[in-house]
Please model this.
Amino acid sequence: MSLKGFHILFIVLAFLCTAGFWAWTVVEVDQAREARAVVAGNLSGSLAILLLGYGIWFVAKKSKTIKV
Model:
């Protein structure tokens, strides 16, 4: 796997983790408030959107040179 391929894998995993944490804070609001994680969850949701945009941009820009 090339470095670019690993970068894409890392971005996908980072997106899944941040989106999953955000989803947990949305679904389990009471637990998130108890853990004082609501603000972190909102920041995580914003980061997930940025990671998604960056991932799409990176794949579109580098798709011709990526070796799997």
Notes: The CA atoms of residues 16 and 48 lie 8 Å apart. Residues 3-27 form the longest helix (25 residues). The chain has a mean pLDDT of 92.
